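Morning, I've got a small favour to ask if you have a moment. I owe you a coffee for this, so here goes:

…
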Amino acid sequence: MVLVLVIGDFHIPHRTYDLPSKFKKLLVPGKIQQILCTGNVCDRETYDYLRTVAADVHVVRGDYDESPAFPLSITVTHSPIRIGVIHGHQCIPTGDLDSLNAIARQMDVDVLISGHTHTFQAIDHDGRFFVNPGSATGAWSGSFNGDPTPSFALMDIQGPVVVTYVYQLIEGEVRVEKIEYRKDADTLNAKEREATGPRSTVMPQSIPSASATQQSVW
């Protein structure tokens, strides 16, 4: 089992001042093995905070990141799952599933993680899994009417199965849902999967335990 934190779009300190305290209480060291960040970290302090949560931190460059050390995309493998990470501003129109699918095919990945929209999304499409963790701070996106919901995701990777837990701060309370993706689900009819969508159930407000190289920035 590999537990991966998927998080991004902090926009600290430009649009907000900190990660919600209820999220910080959940993101304690020793449980998460790897962090995949969709970018817009924006300051050194936020990056250093991520490194206190897990030693293995991978960040892609968002449209508000100034560090040239962050790449525009990364690919990681947790066999047999290949995961690609982009910020998402490369996708036109923003968040368009067909455009994301084209990027996933180009990167040759099973799971594509992207951000930029500041809205959580997890979709099983065309045999691939598309995850957007939203904005961890609920920062204004520049185009969204209203305040985005703070959110992040945890991916529990067990062989060909990726169990994704989404954590959202709604009305001051952390709400958690579970979404499951299976690679090559023995041709569980692709059209049927798209029609029914991923399974989602309410889960307890906790983070599964896991045991605990490094991207150089700044």
